[in-house]
Amino acid sequence: MKITKAQLKQIIVEELEEVNHGGVHTGKLFDYLEERLGYDLAIQLMYAVRQTDEDKQRYIAKLANEMIVSEGSSEMMSPREKQEAVQKEMETYLIDKGVYKGDRNGRISIMTGIVGEASDVLDDAVAKGLFDKYDVMAFIDRLHRMIS
């Protein structure tokens, strides 16, 4: 009797759930990991997740679901929508850092800050991995155009 890869996957998932006595369901996480990292690594990671207590498993499952939903919604955005979302995120970041003041819509008020300071703050954010350097360059260019 031959077992397909899908059948083997299902058997392993069921066995892991039995070992955990029906604990947290992480099927979406397994599917996501398998799609992104491959079957073998997904099995190893799921085994590591199952070794944690139930609270950590719930937390991991919650984060994974948020990540999967977030990734799915960003894949449905047009390039322009993605750019606008990133620029809005940068505006919020600059307001939070006190570089600019926000208007009532949560957008930056261009006359309340200095572009050079914004550039320095966003360069630091790029170094921390918060933003892509090309997105920051486009955003700073947009700021220059707004004040010109």
Tell me the span between the first and last alpha carbons: 74 Å
Say how many strands there are: 0
The radius of gyration computed from the alpha-carbon positions, rounded to a whole number of angstroms, is: 22 Å
The helical percent reads over 70%
Order of helices and strands: HHHHHHH
Question: Mean pLDDT, nearest integer?
Answer: 78
Low-confidence stretches: none
Tally of contiguous helical segments? 7
Strand content: under 5%
User: How would you sum up the global shape?
Assistant: elongated
Largest sheet, described in full? none
Estimated structural class:
mainly alpha
Based on the model shown, name its key terms:
mainly alpha
Note down, in words, how this protein is organized.
- It contains seven helices and no strands.
- With 148 residues, the chain is mainly alpha-helical.
- The longest helix has 22 residues, at 54-75.
- It is elongated, with a radius of gyration of 22 Å.
- The mean pLDDT is 78.
Q: What is this structure, in a nutshell?
A:
The chain is mainly alpha-helical and 148 residues long. It has 7 helices and no strands.
